[in-house]
Automatic annotation (TrEMBL):
Gene3D superfamilies: 3.30.450.40, 3.30.70.270, EAL domain (3.20.20.450). This is EAL domain-containing protein. One of its GO terms (molecular function) is cyclic-guanylate-specific phosphodiesterase activity. It comes from Ammonifex thiophilus. Pfam families: EAL, GGDEF. Residues 283-415 form the GGDEF domain. Keywords: Membrane, Transmembrane, Transmembrane helix. The keyword Transmembrane helix applies. SUPFAM superfamilies: EAL domain-like, GAF domain-like, Nucleotide cyclase. Residues 426-676 form the EAL domain. The keyword Heme does not apply. InterPro entries: Cyclic-di-GMP_PDE-like, EAL_dom, EAL_sf, GAF-like_dom_sf, GGDEF_dom, Nucleotide_cyclase, Rev_trsase/Diguanyl_cyclase. The chain crosses the membrane at residues 18-37, 49-73.
Length: 685
């Protein structure tokens, strides 16, 4: 639908100039007529006829002059009244423009802005009705403001800037919706002002007036200015809304975890600082640090997406199983924190233990598979004389102790001197380890024999890493290996062990060694390249060097471990699966792992004489291993009785203090120079 636009050009100055010219011409013609007509009458008619005719002529002239002046004056007054009405109308239009700009200054929302414009248009007497519509996000038009008479708020079939006007709806011949309804309400003039945003029409303003033809050129120009101002205001509002959305997203990213929707550590720290201030006034609080046990196994075996879904499910579970007023946050990876206010030590420990039990009893569904997990919890009490950072460190220390004690437990931080001394000792050990890796001094390998149980012959030695503290004192692996793993030093340690073992093998051709590989090195292709290079450089037969990997490290990523261990065997090295039975209660993965030996974990060997269950398990391990063509090694043999039981159960090899403690290679060579596997061992201690 296209609207005609009629503009009435009325110029008061031109009309006044025209009136002045007409009056001058009239006076000139009248003077000439009077002058020439008197002379003509005197010549044509003798007196007294000429006198009477002149008198009649004068009366006619006066009458015509009066009539002409009356009509001119009436026309002038009509034009003046119309001009004053136009001026008044324009003044009101300027008031509407001012009201629009005033509403723009107080800009809050598109609805409030358009409502203010519609209300001002009606209240100022300019229009009888007004409405505004905006295009919604779904593309549909929405009525957002209305004032004046109730008329159908329809949308024109076509809108084009800057405006569209119907100056007289009664005489409008084209098709127009609701024409009769508008005329019934006395609306004769309609104007539509499109509103644009980024050059697209996003809405429009509609005005209706009673009189036809009330919108001249000046009014329409002002209305176009109003539409432009409102369009600018709508763009500002849209830009402001976008900025607010971006700010909200940034605020959410800063304070909330995008994966779980829980707050970040920074959010919890702010509340923890408030809890410290409350603790000074006597309100007790506690901080829980929660870690999902063996979470990395989910990532390695089921993929990172499954790990993410586990974190999401656990976050929901955590939020549902703590008190409503508790603050839950995800601080890193699989670590969560819960701030519990208004609790004492006993209640905090009880709530933590209840949470641990619920997690242990609840399976989490991950893509149709059920995963059961456990958690370790460290608790620190919030005190008014300690900073928030200190409380978080204390909770972390308690969590670390919970992991060291076997996981799946709750540990309350106790500020004991022994704990502080242990932390100080850890730092000293870490410094020793870093120094040893840099200088090459302080690290050394101790050897412990592995014996064939049938004839007590030594078949090879296991190389065990030690860190020297002073001349006659060494750190055990339990002290520095966890630190090396925590601070990313294990790859360097593994390479040092391999090179040192090759040096021993080169210097003592009668020995055969097995060395331990950390879980971080299993799957490292660069380590295989390093080993191949060192074997060639040292000129050592690969069959004299074996490797032990833990069960947990091997099954963390079974497919990758299988390929990597196969390449290691292809080099000619033998393989042993260490700590067998301690990680998973299944033998199915043994088919795919190319290992030669299964080392039964010492937890099954200790107490073997008195525990029938352990004896049955060891017997089952031997049976499965032999069925798969693998040999078994029992760790931790410390008595003759244990040795005899293992022989009866069919165990192939043994290792433990009963056969010998770990010793430096010089001591072993000095005492037993014969080739490995040749001589009998001395009498058992």
């Amino acid at each position: 639908m296209v609207f005609d636009v009629e503009i009435w050009p009325e110029r008061m100055a031109s009309m006044r100039l025209l009136a002045e010219r007409v009056a001058l011409i009239y006076l000139l013609l009248a003077s000439l007529w009077v002058f020439f007509s008197d002379r003509w009458l005197a010549l044509a008619f003798p007196p007294p006829f000429s006198y009477h005719l002149g008198l009649a002529k004068g009366l006619v002239f006066v009458a015509l002059t009066a009539l002409f002046l009356y009509l001119g004056l009436r026309r002038f007054c009509s034009l003046q009244a119309r001009a004053e009405e136009r001026i008044e109308h324009l003044n009101r239009m300027y008031v509407l423009l001012a009201e629009t700009n005033h509403a723009l200054i107080r800009l809050q929302s598109p609805q409030l802005l358009l409502a203010a414009v519609c209300r001002a248009a009606v209240e100022e007497g300019l229009f009888a009705t007004a409405w505004a519509m905006l295009k919604g996000p779904n593309g549909y038009w929405e009525l957002v403001a209305r004032a004046g008479r109730e008329v159908p708020a329809f949308v024109p079939s076509s809108l084009a800037p800057p405006y569209q006007v119907i100056n007289d709806l009664l005489s409008y011949e084209e098709e127009f919706p609701f024409k009769d309804l508008f005329l019934a309400q006395g609306i004769r003039t309609l104007a539509f002002l499109p509103l644009t945003a980024n050059k697209d029409i996003s809405g429009f303003l509609a005005f209706g007036a009673e009189k036809p033809g009330v919108l001249g050129k000046e009014e329409l120009e002002l209305m176009a200015q109003i539409a432009a101002d409102i369009s600018f205001g709508l763009e500002v509002l849209a830009h402001r809304e976008q900025c607010l959305q971006v700010q909200e997203k940034l605020h959410h990213l800063v304070h909330y975890d995008p994966l779980t929707g829980l707050p970040h550590r920074f959010y919890l720290e702010d509340h923890l600082k408030q809890a410290v201030l409350k603790a000074r006034r006597g309100l007790s609080s506690a901080l829980m640090v929660i870690d999902v046990d063996n979470y990395q196994l989910i990532n390695d075996n089921w993929g990172y997406k499954a790990g993410d879904r586990l974190l999401q499910a656990f976050a929901r579970f955590l939020r549902e199983n703590v008190r409503e007023e508790d603050i839950v946050a995800r601080v890193a990876g699989d670590k969560f924190m819960v701030l519990m206010e208004d609790v004492f030590e006993e209640e905090a420990c009880r709530l933590a233990e209840e949470l641990r039990q619920r997690v242990e009893e609840t399976p989490f569904e991950l893509d149709g598979r059920m995963a059961r997990v456990t958690i370790s919890i460290g608790i620190a009490l919030v005190k008014g004389d300690e900073a928030a950072e200190t409380v978080m460190s204390q909770a972390d220390l308690a969590l670390r102790r919970a992991k060291e004690e076997g996981r799946n437990r709750v540990v309350l931080f106790q500020p004991e001197e022994e704990l502080l001394a242990r932390l100080k000792g850890e730092q000293e050990v870490l410094n020793l380890l870093k120094e040893a890796l840099v200088t090459g001094r302080g690290l050394l390998l101790f050897l412990q024999p592995v014996v064939r149980l049938s004839d007590l012959q030594v078949v090879h030695y296991e190389a065990l890493l030690r860190l020297r503290e002073c001349v006659d004192k060494y750190c055990s692996p339990a002290q520095f290996i966890p630190l090396a793993e925590r601070f990313g030093l294990m790859p360097r340690l593994d390479r040092w062990v391999i090179e040192s073992a090759l040096d021993i093998l080169k210097a003592h051709p009668q020995l055969k060694l097995f060395v331990n590989l950390s879980g971080l090195s299993v799957g490292d292709d660069t380590l295989l390249e390093y080993l191949q290079m060192k074997l060639k450089e040292k000129e050592v037969d690969p069959s004299r060097l074996g490797f032990e990997v833990t069960e947990t490290a091997a099954i963390r990523n079974l497919l990758r471990a299988e390929r990597w261990l196969s390449r290691l065997r292809w080099l000619g090295c033998e393989l042993a699966l260490d700590d067998f039975g301690s990680g998973f209660s299944t033998f199915s993965y043994l088919r795919s792992l190319p290992v030669d030996y299964l080392k039964i974990d010492l937890s099954f060997i200790r107490g073997l004489a008195s525990d029938r269950v352990h004896r049955a398990l060891v017997e089952a391990m031997n049976t499965v291993a032999h069925t798969l063509g693998k040999l078994t090694v029992a760790e931790g043999i410390e008595s003759e009785e244990t040795l005899q039981i293992l022989r009866e159960l069919g165990t192939d090899f043994g290792q433990g203090y009963y056969f010998g403690r770990p010793e430096p290679v010089e001591v072993i060579i000095a005492r037993r120079p014969e080739p490995a596997g040749g001589p009998d061992l001395p009498a058992a201690p």
